[in-house]
Amino acid sequence: MSGGSTASMGGSCIIAGAAETDRLGKLPGHSTLQLHIEGALNAVADAGLSLRDIDGIATVASPGPVQVAHALGITPDWIDGTGVGGTSFLLHVRHAVAAIRAGYARTVLITHGESGRSRVGASRWRMDASSPPGQFEAPYGTFGPTTTFTIPLLRYMKEYGLTHEQLAYVAVAQRRWAAKNPRAAFRDPITVEDVLASRMVAYPFHLLECCLVTDGGGALVVTSADRAGEFPKPAVHVLGTGESSETPMISQMVDFTESQAFRLAGRAAFAEAGIGVADVDHLMIYDAFAHVPIYGLEALGFVAKGEAGPFIADGNTEPGGSLPLNTNGGGLSYTHTGMYGMFAIQEGVRQLRGEAAAQVDAPEISVILGNGGMFATSGVLVLGRSPRS
Amino acid sequence: MAAKPVPVPTPETQPFWDGCAAGELRIQRCDDCGRPYFYPRPVCPACGSQNVRWFAASGRATLYSYVINHRPAPGFEDDTPYAIAVVELEEGPRMMTNITGLPATPEALELDMPLRVRFEPRGDVSLPVFGPEES
Fold first, then answer.
1. Could you tell me what percent of chain A has a pLDDT over 70?
2. Phi and psi (nearest 5°) for B12?
């Protein structure tokens, strides 16, 4: 079980197992830890493995990797507790690839569980009044992501002419995907008018332009590509990864019209994979709010600055469009536990395996763009149905 | 009703809060690369120099971006809806703030409009907020 002998530097890795909790949504009978455990057991079973095969663990506190490993009876040789918001699981994949290449681990389990809605066994969030955000943002009445993540958008709208209708259309397009997905929380079709008539949360954002808050979890099993073929499901190859951070405070973002972290993480992942945007068949962009897919499309270079709003409003990212985006329905319609990145990865894996609810026609490459905090951090994964050519 | 959050200064931010108490918006500038910066810290974020000093900013700024928040933070119930804004100081750095003296409406809050700092008591500190240039 200890790693080392088979993995080699520069060796590539696969996602051998991937699964979510049995149900998502409102799960008051599940603690945060139980959501981790259920996701982990499902993913390990999906890989055709047992918990005894796992020698590396990665997750976010709390409960964190020590608690999750102990609860599952895993004694890890490698531990990653990177906790940089909802994109953390993308970074865990990247770090697991490095660890497997280095021989530090052979089979890594990455777990997510969050009782975001029911708050069962969930740690209480508290702002330290002496931290930089506690001194320089919280005194102005910030209160979670709706009051901070949203602030850059008016600047973008002024600079690039994005309309309220185009922003609303992001939610409309994703609902069209969600309508095809029985596991999506919201499936009824909506119109731009519905979105604009929904309650104002933080101008310019209406309720339907903000993500859900749910309970749920999921997990991944990452191992060496040398073992592709040993598992019941088709291997999903990790072709490239990237990570970056920008700012712990939204007010200090370099440029309110673009995410530097998205751009840098994306550039690294695409370069490692040796691909360009034309190679991408399927795309997931962490959508905590309706503007994030707009920033993501532009940061990754799918469209030029200022073009993402019209691109989505023209139907390019919805069912039947040229660039299938957020095909599970996204954080806006599928689920959003608080740290959604795990679910974005899961949908990329399902699409490449050909087992998604709203299946895209035989995608070869899926790209996952994760956000952490409020444009604070980013991870990007380039996943493929085939090994790197 | 809960009280609004009161910032707790740390040694490296104390001069900023001392400035606010004295009616001055004191920020830092790097003596090596010349760049002014905010938030307070002992290292220039542009060049890494520790050769930095405090100075009084003009207090003039423009409105860079904002939201009008309808779900109040604890302590802000009576202010709702209220603007959570980011202003760009005349010297370049940006900071979060509230807008005072103007209605919290998109019509009243035009991006790039000129603003000027003023200070409001908050617990045992003075908090910089921004309002119209003339008032």
1. 97
2. -80, -15
